[in-house]
Design brief:
It contains 16 helices and 2 strands. Strands 1-2 form a two-stranded antiparallel ribbon. The termini are far apart.
């Protein structure tokens, strides 16, 4: 009797890929957080949306799990079982959570994912402590794998770039909008690569390294993730001015009211036709006028064009790398999904 061919399964959509990877990582992430001091573990669980203040279970909205997915897919792209990338996924997700806890304090952001930020819910000192604990736990997680020394070096390099990017971002707020001291779009690109791209690149590279990929593949995934991070940040900048609050969870023009020097703003400030923009930015009640002037000066168009450039660069790196077929295709679908929110 002739055997019937195995049924062909439809490829998973990008949200399904992200969900698959989150589900595979969640038990290991919970186990790692459970090793912390109980009070610190509660704050960490709250930051992930697993519990309320006091520890009662919750199902609050968490993140997409992008970094977790990149680590698992990085391992699969190397031809390994996705489980090989789980320690990388856990470590990078812990570092991401640590950075968000500290970012919210530095930026004075009172909410995160439609809930009080950890520092508002528990206090500034406890939130700093929880962030420090998550960072230490990330290093411990990677140090325990057979490739520990090399994995920790990869994470440390990404952290150094993340800190540089965060430092630049904080300093941008102190610099003038015009004149020789103004922030340039080139400086903004470098900041975004460090603050957002370094950890995305690290996630994919770490997963590939733990999956046994050669150095050339690890490097290609790192660089692709960095381009993805810049594109992701640029799209976030566009959504921060023109996005739908029902989708973004942010008020219309929130970035303008906060005076953030985002890429569309920087481009517009360099256009002589937008001479009146600084005065509008200094008037919180005139955000709609500011947004219209930024768009007329080409800020929105330039940001989206720049995002497309970095998306194309990331795609070229992934297509050119020797990746396992299925995982490589899933990586490309995730990339497109993350930057097509406005493109």
């Amino acid at each position: 009797m002739t055997a019937l061919p195995a049924p062909v399964r439809a490829p998973l959509s990008a949200p399904e890929v992200l969900a698959r990877c989150r589900e595979s990582v969640r038990p290991a992430l919970e186990e790692a957080v459970g090793r912390l001091h109980p009070w610190v573990a509660e704050m960490a669980a709250y930051s992930f949306g697993w519990c309320e203040v006091g520890g009662a279970p919750a199902a609050a909205p968490g993140g997409k799990g992008v970094r977790q997915a990149l680590a698992v897919l990085g391992a699969e792209a190397a031809g390994a079982d996705g489980r090989a990338g789980i320690p990388a996924a856990v470590a990078v997700e812990l570092v991401h959570a640590f950075s968000l806890l500290h970012d919210d304090i530095m930026d004075g952001d009172a909410t995160r994912r439609r809930r009080p930020a950890v520092w508002k819910a528990y206090g500034t000192g406890p939130a700093v402590l929880a962030g420090d604990a998550l960072f230490a736990l990330a290093v411990e997680t990677l140090a325990a794998v057979p490739q520990g020394p090399g994995a920790v070096r990869l994470l440390s390099a990404a952290l150094a770039d993340l800190v540089r990017g965060q430092a630049d971002d904080l300093l941008f707020a102190t610099r003038p909008r015009g004149g020789p001291g103004r922030v340039t779009p080139q400086e903004y690109r470098a900041m975004a690569e460090g603050k957002t791209g370094a950890l995305l690149g690290c996630a994919a590279a770490l997963g590939a390294a733990l999956g046994g990929a050669p150095a050339r593949t690890v490097d290609a995934l790192d660089r692709a993730g960095r381009h993805l991070g810049v594109a992701f940040q640029l799209v976030d900048d566009v959504l921060g001015i023109w996005g739908d609050p029902a989708v973004t969870g942010k008020p219309v023009g929130g970035d303008l009211r906060e005076g953030k020097k985002t890429f569309p703003v920087l481009v517009a400030l360099g256009d002589p036709a937008a001479r009146g923009l600084p005065a509008l930015l200094d008037s919180p009640g005139r955000c709609a006028e500011a947004a219209a002037l930024i768009e007329a000066a080409g800020g929105r168009t330039a940001a989206l064009a720049e995002a497309r450039t970095h998306t194309a660069a990331a795609r070229a790196l992934l297509v050119g790398a020797p990746l396992a077929e299925g995982a490589g295709e899933e990586l490309l679908r995730v990339l497109d999904f993350l930057v097509d929110r406005e493109l």
